[in-house]
């Protein structure tokens, strides 16, 4: 099964290079590509994964996340951008992005990120993951509640914030992927969220750890 991809990127050369990269692999199809948020909102079809730039001509990539999620509820969104400042990273995650990858990332890693998010992970460029962890540890306000998370659930939560996949967490904790998914379900229920991006956003905002 090929992973269907949509692209929102205003740089024509970079957009075409992404199309060529994904077409050359054989595991992906690029179903559509647009150079603006407005065009994507008006004409995009369902896709498994959307690669979304932040710096777009009018409406920014961050502004369009919620609209795309509403139009395509099952689609996963990866921000693919040159911007790596705290504000854009956090706003993207809080608005519902499922991953955050820098354009300078090795092309093979970009394809790996698409596969990871398609499988339910939250891919993050390592430097971005470190930023989120630093914010998570030091810069967010104290929580009103610890949500009664167990020690193991807090371990899993920290790994979710760092962008680890289900398989990565299973290997690091020496447990099965199914056990990891059970922990996910309990964390989602206790935090009253439904997606990984919502988990990350709430954990950062309330310093849950």
Report on the architecture of this protein.
With 209 residues, the chain is an alpha/beta fold. It folds into two domains: 3-125, Rossmann fold; 140-206, Arc Repressor Mutant, subunit A, CATH 1.10.10.10. It is 54% helix and 13% strand. The chain has helices spanning 12-25, 37-43, 61-71, 86-95, 107-118, 126-139, 151-161, 166-173, 177-191, 196-206; strands spanning 3-8, 28-34, 49-52, 76-81, 99-102. It has a five-stranded parallel beta sheet, with helices on both faces. Helix 3 (61-71) runs parallel beside helix 4. The longest helix is centred in the C-terminal third of the chain and has 15 residues, at 177-191. It is globular and about 50 Å long. The model has no long low-confidence stretch (mean pLDDT 88).
Radius of gyration in whole Å, from Cα?
17 Å
Fraction in helix:
40-55%
Strand order of the largest sheet: 2-1-3-4-5
Q: Regions with pLDDT < 50 over 5+ consecutive residues?
A: none
Return the average pLDDT rounded to an integer.
88
CATH class of the largest domain: Alpha Beta
**How many alpha or pi helices?**
10
Q: SS-based structural class? A: alpha/beta
């Amino acid at each position: 099964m090929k992973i269907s991809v949509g692209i929102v990127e205003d740089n024509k050369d970079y957009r075409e290079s992404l199309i060529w990269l994904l077409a050359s692999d054989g595991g992906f199809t690029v179903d559509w590509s647009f150079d603006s948020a407005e065009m994507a909102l008006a004409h995009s079809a369902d896709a498994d994964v959307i690669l979304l730039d932040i710096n777009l001509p009018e409406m920014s990539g961050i502004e369009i996340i919620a609209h795309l999620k509403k139009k395509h509820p099952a689609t996963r969104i990866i921000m693919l951008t040159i911007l790596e400042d705290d504000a854009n990273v956090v706003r993207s995650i809080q608005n519902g992005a499922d991953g955050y990858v820098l354009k300078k990332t090795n092309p093979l890693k970009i394809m790996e990120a698409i596969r990871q998010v398609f499988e339910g992970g939250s891919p993050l460029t390592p430097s971005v993951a470190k930023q989120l962890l630093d914010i998570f540890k030091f810069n967010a306000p104290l929580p009103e509640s610890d949500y009664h998370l167990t020690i193991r659930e807090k371990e899993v939560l920290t790994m979710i914030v760092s962008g680890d996949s289900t398989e990565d967490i299973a290997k690091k904790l020496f447990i099965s992927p199914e056990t990891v998914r059970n922990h996910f379900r309990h964390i989602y229920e206790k935090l009253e969220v439904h997606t990984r991006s919502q988990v990350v956003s709430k954990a950062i905002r309330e310093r849950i750890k």
